[in-house]
Design a protein that fits this description.
By secondary structure, this protein is of the alpha+beta class. It contains ten helices and eight strands. The longest helix has about 35 residues. The model has no long low-confidence stretch (mean pLDDT about 90).
């Protein structure tokens, strides 16, 4: 794929956006009267090449970047059928393996991730670490045979039950300093000592959340992704795409809610004119549209910086994009529900379930407060309180 403008879709991205939007609308229409099957949607999207647009062409991908993959997720969400695992499998895991994996790892995983026949979960969050990656206690130590022994716990890990493997963030001891440093390991689902337990959630989502337990999981030496000494470089190679894709997820949701509200306001008539003619209804919807568009621009900037290899500036922009998109999505969903009134809480219109779902983007993968901390310290140079 040829490079496009960082903020405005060029011909190739315009064509991709249009194709995904048409596909998503057709799929949503076919399943409007039944429960959407994310596995079927995943398989169809994989056959069309949408799942791996960010992965290298030599491994079955589209040769694009996170900018292209964010378009796919945004348009799926705008049609009401987002795929949460797009954030995890191709965006985080696929990107990390493509950038840092061995040739064997790339050939083993990337073609399947690209066509959807393989999925990979991502395990970083721990019960006692929260947003502090420096407190991760999952540790890997050398096994007698030259491999690794991995022990620890992870929580809120999406899609473990439908994934072939999980990319686990652990820590190894630096032989020179004795300090623990982050490392990434591919742990296949059937590995002895690897178990997972469903965490019941109030969020209406097809993908389930799990606690993962790693009890002396014995891994071969080749399970390590990249250089043992690369540490944070490899970790943030996955975290920045995660934030960008979370922004895309939120934007799609916000656009979906706003579209329903606009259509309702255009035709709903209880007085002489449709309710959309009244500024008290129209202006908040216009404001929601503006805020979603502004957030999309920041997401495009973050994706452009990341795809250009500017990891430092991409980190700042990715955090800002995730923050802006989450705030815009929450406001768009709230306003959509208020526009429909009582109908906004009915199953028929499907907006009430988005009230909780939209707030996920404020919390995961990092809370808005931690993003404000990041901007305060890293961008504005203010002192830390912790």
């Amino acid at each position: 794929m040829k490079p496009n403008s960082p903020l405005i879709d060029g011909p190739e991205r315009t064509a991709l956006r249009s194709a995904v939007a048409d596909f998503a609308k057709r799929y949503a229409t076919r399943h409007s009267s039944e429960k959407t099957d994310p596995d079927a949607l995943w398989a169809e999207a994989g056959k069309l090449g949408y799942l791996g647009v960010n992965l290298p062409e030599e491994y079955g991908g589209g040769g694009g970047g996170i900018a292209e993959l964010s378009i796919v997720l945004e348009e799926l969400g705008a049609a009401g059928c987002p795929l949460l695992m797009l954030v995890v499998s191709p965006a985080i895991c696929g990107t990390v393996i493509a950038r840092f994996g061995t040739e064997e790892q790339k050939r083993a995983w990337l073609p399947g991730i690209a066509d959807g026949s393989k999925r990979m979960a991502f395990g970083i969050t721990e019960p006692d670490a929260g947003s502090n990656s420096h407190r991760i206690t999952t540790t890997a130590r050398r096994a007698p045979g030259g491999g690794w022994l991995l022990t620890g716990r992870k929580v809120f890990i999406s899609g473990v039950d439908i994934s072939d493997a999980t990319l686990i963030v652990g820590r190894t001891e630096d032989a020179r300093t004795g300090r623990l440093k982050p490392c990434l390991f591919i742990v296949e689902r059937g590995a002895p000592g690897f178990s997972y337990h469903h965490i019941p959630m109030e969020v209406a989502a097809a993908e389930k959340q799990f606690e993962v337990v790693l009890d002396e999981v014995e891994l071969p030496a080749e399970a390590l992704v990249g250089d043992e000494d690369a540490g944070l470089l490899q970790l943030f190679a996955g975290l920045n795409p995660e934030r960008i894709m979370t922004a895309a997820f939120a934007l799609g949701m916000g656009r979906h809610a706003l579209a329903k509200a606009v259509e309702y306001a255009r035709v709903r008539q209880v007085w002489k004119e449709p309710i959309g003619a009244h500024q008290a209804v129209a202006h908040p919807l216009a404001q929601a549209h503006i805020e979603l568009e502004l957030a999309r621009l920041m997401m495009a900037k973050a994706a452009h910086l990341y795809d250009a290899g500017d990891d430092a500036r991409a980190g700042e922009a990715a955090n800002m994009a995730k923050y802006a998109a989450a705030e815009a999505a929450v406001k768009a969903v709230d306003q959509a529900v208020h526009t429909l009134g009582g109908n906004g809480l009915t199953t028929e219109y499907g907006l009430a379930k988005l009230i909780t779902a939209a707030r996920v983007a404020r919390i995961a993968p990092v809370s808005r407060e931690m993003i404000l901390n990041f901007v305060s310290h890293q961008t504005l140079g203010l002192p830390k309180s912790y």
